[in-house]
Amino acid sequence: MKNLIRKMLLVMCVTTFALAFTACGKSDKSEPAAAEEEKASKDVAEEPEEPETKTEENTSDLPASGKYATLEDFLNSDMMQEQLDSQVASLEGTGLTAEVTAEDNRLVYNFIFTDPNMTAGVDASTLQSNLDSQASTFESIASTIPLAVEIENPVVVVRYLDSAGTELASREFTPPAE
Length: 178
Description:
Blueprint: H1 2-24, H2 31-45, H3 56-59, H4 71-76, H5 78-90, E1 96-103, E2 106-113, H6 116-120, H7 124-133, H8 135-148, E3 155-161, E4 167-173
Parallel strand pairs: 2-3
Antiparallel strand pairs: 1-2, 3-4
């Protein structure tokens, strides 16, 4: 279970970076380099699970049931807070920040353009296209949420907001139909 949560965190982290740099248009990588990095991140996520070891670090805030009661509990866990803080800090200086919140059965990613000048050149249709291109990633996150949280019908919501909090583009993702 703990390895599954780590893998879900990895997917969320990779997604955060992918969306942030795609939305900002700040990627300095060539197409082959970006494809190679994506393949490497998938390889990491598909590694066989290691045997679980009980340490203070990986068991400190996981409930005895092995699942969190709510998405909010999951996001407030020490493990998630550490990961989220790290990801938000990595966006510093890019003109973009991220907030991840829980609203009932919804895991909400808010990507906020902190520099008003950046949104002047941003087209909502481009942002929507970026969301569409990341659909399988966010659907995958939605499908893994019930493995870590006692929840039915999870939804991942991704929003791009300007510095005033006005929504520029958004989309909801649910697990793919089986």
